[in-house]
Amino acid sequence: MTNPLETASKTIGAVERTTSILRLFAESHQASLGVTEIANELGLSKAVVHRVLTSLRASDFIEIDPESRRYLLGPSALALGLAYLSRQDLRDRARPFLQTLSRGTQETATLSIRRADQRIYIDQVTPPREVKMTVAIGEAYPLHAGSSSKAFLAFLPQEEQEVYLRDHTLDAITEQTITDAKALRSELATIRKRGYARSLGERQPGSASVAAPVFNHLGEPVGVISVCGPLERFRNQTESHAKLLLEHTRELSQKLGFK
């Protein structure tokens, strides 16, 4: 008679081996893997690896290169990944990051998205202190002024940046707004290299902020998170706030499939 506990244990073991092999393909820097590589990496026998790969091939999660005889992720793996990504709401996914970021900096954390040539705040978390910054949810802003806007513009493809600079007047919103195209290009290059944008009163007098993009699985900036506060209080905390901000945006980007 079959022992139910033994059967369940074997089933769990088979599932764990299957998921570990799929995870190895997902995390590998190589497009394809061989049976021996997989077996050595996971500490499995080649017979077990071959059996799992055969099962995964039957459901199109894995396919084999006819020339090299090496294995690659198949169309079902892509479909599964895309189904996961399509169900991710950026605002919901970002909310816990905004909360911990606001708590860690004791300043306001915001989330913005891009709509064509403008940027819009879609969420914010404010700290429990009397003097703090708040933003207007749903209001649109140009892409050249302020840290969140510049964080979007800096990480767009070069040709899109040039189209924006060609087609838009860089109007001054405050005395600190960058209105010279050459100076803005230089600023955008610095932002890309540094990983985040900063603003000292560029969009709103008396305010300061740092902002960094959130990337999707295609490496596209799908959102920007910022930390903002009163200029005098914020000025000496810019670097420490930026460091914490980058930790959060990198983690969120990874959760959205960015590598």
Structural features, described:
The structure is a single chain. This protein has helices at 4-27, 35-42, 46-58, 75-86, 90-105, 147-154, 158-167, 181-194, 231-234, 238-255; strands at 62-64, 71-73, 108-115, 118-125, 140-142, 197-200, 207-215, 221-230. It is elongated and about 70 Å long. Helix 1 crosses helix 3, helix 5 packs antiparallel against helix 10 (238-255) and helix 6 (147-154) packs across helix 8 (181-194). It is α+β, with helices and mostly antiparallel strands and 259 residues long. Helix content is 49%, strand content 19%. It is built from 10 helices and 8 strands.
Structural class assignment:
alpha+beta
Alpha-carbon distance between the two ends: 49 Å
The tally of strands reads 8
Q: Main β-sheet, in a few words?
A: 6 strands, antiparallel
Mean pLDDT: 89
Helix content: 40-55%
Number of helices: 10
Beta-strand proportion: 15-25%
Rg from C-alpha positions?
24 Å
Low-confidence stretches: none
- Please trace the helix and strand order, writing H or E for each element: HHHEEHHEEEHHHEEEHH
Give me the side-by-side strand order of the main sheet.
Answer: 5-4-3-8-7-6
Described by the principal axes of the CA atoms, the overall outline is elongated
